[in-house]
Amino acid sequence: MRAGAAALALAFWCGAAFADPTPARIRAEIDALLDRLQASGCQFERNGTWYGSADARAHLLDKLAYVERRSTLQSTEQFIELIGSSSSASGKPYRVKCGNAAPVESRQWLTRELSAVRRQ
Q1: Could you report the per-residue pLDDT of 38-91, keeping only the tens digit for each?
Q2: Distance (Å) of CA 3 to CA 12, 46, 90, 104
Q3: What's the structural domain count of the chain?
Q4: HEC letters along the chain
Q5: Domain extent for 66
Q6: Which end of the chain is more exposed for a tag (fewer CB within 10 A), N or C?
């Protein structure tokens, strides 16, 4: 995690115990990203183990619920950076592998998909 992202994450995780809900527009984009991930059939690597797209979606939803109980996401990019990019336990980046393509970091995959969601 980059130094600026680490500082943001620390501030984010130390947020209020009773946070405001994620704004509806941002939550809709997050839900669209997670729907695209599940529908993709791609595999998702977390801490060295590959999972199916439905399991990946469930994991990210669990992580999102945890964060939403403590803080308010300010953007979909913040979701990607703090929730969808790396393990909060190990710090290892998540990766996505679709078909025979080489794996890419989930940050790259989710950012590309977010651009597609916003074009629709």
Answers
A1: 999 999 999 999 999 999 999 999 999 999 999 999 999 999 999 999 999 999
A2: 14, 22, 16, 22
A3: 1
A4: CCHHHHHHHHHHHCCCCCCCCCCHHHHHHHHHHHHHHHHHCCEEEECCEEECHHHHHHHHHHHHHHHHCCCCCCCHHHHHHHHHCECCCCCCECEEECCCCCCEEHHHHHHHHHHHHHHC
A5: 3-119
A6: C
